[in-house]
């Protein structure tokens, strides 16, 4: 189970840096946080899981989405 | 031009491999994990601090200084973010379609503010607030604590702000009220941390004579209020209402 | 066990690659978040090896996991979010000023400013 | 309340002050806010000085005070240790931050949040200087860094936002490596306090050495010795002047001296010290050459910060190499701190005076700006205090006898005699003089252009500048006493002989003469045609963002290689 979650996190993190659409990257990043929170529950760390879910998946996603809304969604200028 | 590109990508590769090789022995180490700390806490944490959640016992008891630092990092970061935000918001038109908080007549035209969103978040807000207080107050015996509860409080306040149907701000999403609570709880945190010094228990010592979780509950409440109000005011500022000082 | 550590090591390297090789400033912040997440995962994963139960002492527990890394990581997670919040606010300001996310372009355009 | 509680006052009082300011900010009228701001800063800036007065005899008698925060068992709690080194570090930060804050009332950022953040920064500096716990050091460094990023970005310029961003990205990445190092050490030793870690590493093995190297390099990044100094120049030159002064006078030195606490306890610390010492000496020379090639006045000063921190690290590294408890080690460490203290004084003075001048003249290019004093007079300054203070600072940094820089630099080069660093540092001294001749040309008289304005010149600028200039002069006059004061606090054996070194010997004075002559010759060479070409070549060296990480990786690799 741990292994599957870690492989998923690795795949998502590669997606985060490879994706051309920043919003997709943000959603993948919050997916990483959710999966880590799940992993923390499995690893008997409920406190860390709550924090990661609230802070990593919640607040940081809000801030990232805010930043992208105020700037540009695509990585490169669209021609 | 091409040559310098090649050179710089070589440098990036060298950086990457140097770091990979130096970190490998640490990250891949299979040295047995120490258990002295665990054993000590297993024996003593509950008796010494009164908190049966031993993570809370460390977080607000044994290593409360780290928590103070963490609160300061959050305070400074949010202050800095808000300063930059206010500068940005002032330059923009406040009624651009990107802002959430609009006056009633403009709301209709905004695709982001649907009626569904308003009703659901308005009704959900109080429940989320209640849950936040639960997480905050029971941090010493169950998973959770001031910080986590505070974040949930913040999302409750944001829900209320989103679901606010009337023109006027309510007490809970008025940025000035939030900032006041934040200021008070920061002062309270400093005073609570020093209260042990006056009672002869040292900095961050439990000022109460008998061992109980009261001090941890108190710190949880203060930190929860502080974190909740500061994050909520940042989110409200991000949604388009500037926090003028 | 080694496989898990190797996976975390790879996650770390992916994030680090984003920081050093990607010119996009938001991608760099993503990289910072990823390497932080990798370290947090590592601490919790390794700290949980010595026990089987959550560190809540009120039940009939006998063999808890190490609570110290958990408490440390609470702090580390919050700090990493604070850092990325400030970094994002700064990068929005930089974008508004220069109209670009590319770090070299930003540096180039701002170097003409007095 | 006993004296071991008193050691927390430098942390608590600034926090109390900033809490007061932040709370009143949301409440009352403008007048109330200003009163609260002054009260908060008095609590945060002046009261810690008072408590240092009380603590001084205690530290002299007992050597150190230590307490676990919250009075827990030392194996699990966070140990704070207040000794001579922390006393001196807090003294340094208080001495500089008071004039810097006064200056900020005149020109710098005047918002309430500025003062609050400034006080939080002071509290974090005090915490860094005392804490003996690895993870707590991480948190405190993050607090200090965070305040620094926000304070740099509080400038209105967009370039300042970029400077702050690059500082943030670079040092936060380094802090993740710090965390990895903490992980490794916790895994080996099961402890986070310095005492616990050092007792559990009997013999250095690969993993513990790599961990210590990661921690050292991550902290040295904030000290900005050469391969790690990419972030410094934009950050120091674009920040508001009061913040620049704090950054280069205090924030560079505190992490450096806080490293002494852990590195002096482990055996590989001496090897790390030797490498860092060489790096520091090279930094001193190379940064001075870069400074000579700059055209922006504040950038020139920022390169001098790197160069001077190179002097300090050269002595600091040799102190670690000798072992800080040994007699030579203690002497070298005192010398390093002596120069750090004096550098803090004159560099703050230079940043503030040059900043004021370039602001009023509205021109930062040292090749164009002339007659700066006339411009200052035109903007309302009756007595040329700014110019005089600038010259006090410039004469100090170039080590001309009656001023403080002469004493600290002479002592520093004397302490490093017969090493390779000695030559490098002497050459760097020549470069310093040449580049300050270049900078001083901004005060050359030029044709008067502007008419008199009636706007009063802010008094707080004059107060801040005069206080710092007074420090520089008094530091020169009482140099032997100041040095003995530092040495007594840092030496582990309280009964040591007084300093027998004579400053005004003919060889020292001759050296000043030779250095000055060399500086003038170098300056003439630098403004000649070929010199200008060479320097512009140096100035236009490609400096891209990824180079910073390259430097980081290389310095980690070099240290690991040396230790194996």
Describe this structure in words.
The complex is a heterotetramer of chains A (79), B (245), C (114) and D (564). By secondary structure, chain A is an all-alpha fold. Chain A has one domain. Chain A is built from three helices and no strands. The longest helix of chain A is centred in the last third of the chain and has 24 residues, at 46-69. Chain A is flat. The mean pLDDT of chain A is 87. Chain B is mostly helical and 245 residues long. Helix content of chain B is 70%, strand content 0%. Chain C has a single domain (2-50, 64-110), classed as Helix Hairpins. Chain C has helices at 2-21, 25-47, 67-98, 103-110. Chain D is an all-alpha fold and 564 residues long. Chain D has helices spanning 3-6, 9-25, 30-62, 84-106, 112-130, 134-153, 158-189, 194-200, 206-223, 232-238, 241-251, 253-263, 269-292, 297-322, 327-361, 372-378, 385-397, 404-415, 420-440, 459-477, 479-490, 506-527, 529-539, 545-563, and strands at 64-68, 79-83. In chain D, helix 7 packs antiparallel against helix 9 (206-223). The longest helix of chain D is centred in the middle third of the chain and has 35 residues, at 327-361. The mean pLDDT of chain D is 85. The interface between A and B is medium-sized, with 15 and 19 residues.
CATH architecture of chain C: Orthogonal Bundle
| N- and C-termini, Cα separation of chain D | 49 Å
SS content category of chain C:
mainly alpha
Largest sheet of chain C: none
- End-to-end Cα distance of chain C, whole Å, is 55 Å
Low-confidence stretches of chain C: none
Strand content of chain C: under 5%
Number of strands of chain D: 2
Domains of chain C, number: 1
Q: How do the SSEs of chain C run, as a string of H and E?
A: HHHH
Can you count the helices of chain C?
4
Number of strands of chain C: 0
Q: Tell me the greatest interface.
A: B-D, 67 and 81 residues
- Tell me the number of helical segments of chain D per DSSP (H or I, 4 or more residues long): 24
What helical percentage do the residues of chain C reach? over 70%
SS class of chain D: mainly alpha
Mean pLDDT of chain C: 87
């Amino acid at each position: 189970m741990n292994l599957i979650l870690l492989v998923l996190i690795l795949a998502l993190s590669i997606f985060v840096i490879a994706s051309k659409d920043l919003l997709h990257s943000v959603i993948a990043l919050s997916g990483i946080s959710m999966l880590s929170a799940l992993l923390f529950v499995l690893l008997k760390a409920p406190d860390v899981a709550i924090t990661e879910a609230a802070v990593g998946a919640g607040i940081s996603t809000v801030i990232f989405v805010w930043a992208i809304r105020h700037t540009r969604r695509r990585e490169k200028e669209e021609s | 031009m091409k040559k310098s590109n090649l050179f710089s990508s070589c440098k990036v590769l060298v950086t990457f491999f140097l770091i990979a090789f130096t970190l490998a022995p640490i990250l891949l180490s299979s040295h047995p994990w120490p258990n002295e700390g665990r054993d000590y806490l297993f024996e003593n944490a509950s008796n010494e601090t009164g908190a049966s959640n031993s993570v809370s016992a460390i977080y607000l008891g044994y290593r409360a200084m780290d928590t103070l630092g963490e609160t300061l990092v959050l305070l400074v970061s949010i202050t800095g973010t808000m300063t930059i935000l206010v500068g940005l918001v002032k330059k923009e038109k406040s009624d651009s379609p990107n802002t959430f908080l609009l006056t009633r007549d403009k709301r209709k035209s905004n695709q982001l503010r649907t009626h569904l969103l308003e009703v659901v978040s308005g009704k959900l807000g109080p429940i989320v607030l209640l849950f936040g207080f639960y997480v905050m107050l029971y941090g010493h015996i169950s998973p959770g604590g001031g910080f986590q509860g505070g974040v949930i409080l913040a999302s409750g306040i944001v829900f209320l702000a989103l679901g606010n149907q009337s023109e006027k701000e309510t007490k809970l999403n008025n940025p000035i009220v939030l900032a006041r609570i934040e200021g008070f709880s920061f002062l309270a945190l400093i005073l609570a941390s020093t209260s042990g010094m006056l009672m002869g228990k040292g900095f961050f010592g439990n000022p109460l004579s008998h061992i109980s979780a009261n001090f941890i509950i108190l710190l949880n409440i203060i930190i929860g209020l502080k974190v909740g109000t500061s994050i909520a005011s940042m989110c409200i500022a991000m949604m388009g209402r500037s926090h003028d000082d | 066990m080694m496989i898990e550590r190797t996976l975390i090591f790879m996650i770390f390297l992916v994030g680090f690659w984003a920081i050093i090789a990607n010119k996009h400033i938001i991608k760099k912040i993503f990289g910072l978040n990823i390497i932080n997440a990798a370290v947090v995962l590592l601490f919790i994963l390794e700290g949980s090896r010595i026990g089987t139960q959550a560190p809540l002492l009120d039940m009939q527990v006998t063999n808890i996991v190490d609570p110290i890394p958990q408490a440390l990581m609470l702090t580390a997670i919050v700090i990493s979010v604070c850092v990325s919040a400030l970094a994002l606010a700064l990068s929005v300001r930089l974008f508004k000023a220069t109209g670009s996310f590319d770090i070299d372009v930003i540096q180039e355009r701002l170097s003409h400013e007095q | 309340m006993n004296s071991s509680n008193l050691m927390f006052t430098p942390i608590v009082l600034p926090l109390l002050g900033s809490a007061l300011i932040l709370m009143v900010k949301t409440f009352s009228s403008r007048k109330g806010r200003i009163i609260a701001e002054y009260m908060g800063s008095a609590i945060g800036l002046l009261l810690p000085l008072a408590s240092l007065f009380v603590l001084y005899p205690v530290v002299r008698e007992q050597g150190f005070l230590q307490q676990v925060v919250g009075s827990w068992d030392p194996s699990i709690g966070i140990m704070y240790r207040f000794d001579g080194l922390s006393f001196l570090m807090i003294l340094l930060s208080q001495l500089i931050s008071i004039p810097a804050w006064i200056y900020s009332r005149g020109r710098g950022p005047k918002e309430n949040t500025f003062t609050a953040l400034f006080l939080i920064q002071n509290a974090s500096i005090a915490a860094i200087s005392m804490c003996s716990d690895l993870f707590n050091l991480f948190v405190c460094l993050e607090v200090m860094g965070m305040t620094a990023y926000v304070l740099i970005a509080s400038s209105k310029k967009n370039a300042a936002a970029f400077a702050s961003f690059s500082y943030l990205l670079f040092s936060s990445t380094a802090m993740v490596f710090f965390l990895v190092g903490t992980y490794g050490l916790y895994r080996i030793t099961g402890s986070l306090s310095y005492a616990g870690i050092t007792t559990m590493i009997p013999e250095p093995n690969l993993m513990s050495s790599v961990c210590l190297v990661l921690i050292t390099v991550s902290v040295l990044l904030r000290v900005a010795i050469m391969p790690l100094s990419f972030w410094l120049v934009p950050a120091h030159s674009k920040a508001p002047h009061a913040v620049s002064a704090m950054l280069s006078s205090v924030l560079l030195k505190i992490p450096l001296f806080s490293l002494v606490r852990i590195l002096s306890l482990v055996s590989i610390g001496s090897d790390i010290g030797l490498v860092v010492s060489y790096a520091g000496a090279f930094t001193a020379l190379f940064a001075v050459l870069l400074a000579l090639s700059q055209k922006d006045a504040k950038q020139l000063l920022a390169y001098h910060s790197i160069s001077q921190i190179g002097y300090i690290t050269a002595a600091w590294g040799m102190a670690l190499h000798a072992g800080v408890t040994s007699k030579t080690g203690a002497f070298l460490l005192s010398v390093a701190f002596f120069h750090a203290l004096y550098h803090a004084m004159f560099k703050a003075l230079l940043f503030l005076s040059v900043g004021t001048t370039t602001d009023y003249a509205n021109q930062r290019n040292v090749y164009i700006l002339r007659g700066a004093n006339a411009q200052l007079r035109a903007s309302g300054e009756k007595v040329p205090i700014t110019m005089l203070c600038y010259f006090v600072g410039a004469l100090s940094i170039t080590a001309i006898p009656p001023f403080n820089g002469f004493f600290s630099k002479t002592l520093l080069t004397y302490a490093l005699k017969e090493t390779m660093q000695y030559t490098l540092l002497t050459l760097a001294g020549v470069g310093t003089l040449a580049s300050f001749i270049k900078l001083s040309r901004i005060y050359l008289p030029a044709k008067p252009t502007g008419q008199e304005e009636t706007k009063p010149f802010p008094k707080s600028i004059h107060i801040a500048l005069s206080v710092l200039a007074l420090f520089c002069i008094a530091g020169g006059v009482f140099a032997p006493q100041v040095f003995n004061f530092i040495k007594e606090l840092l030496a582990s054996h309280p009964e040591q002989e007084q300093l027998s070194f004579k400053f005004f010997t003919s060889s020292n004075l001759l050296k000043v003469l030779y250095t000055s002559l060399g500086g003038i010759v170098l300056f003439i060479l630098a403004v000649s045609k070929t010199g200008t070409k060479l320097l512009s070549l140096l100035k236009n060296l490609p400096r891209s963002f990824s180079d910073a990480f390259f430097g980081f990786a290389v310095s980690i690799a070099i240290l690991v290689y040396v230790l194996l």
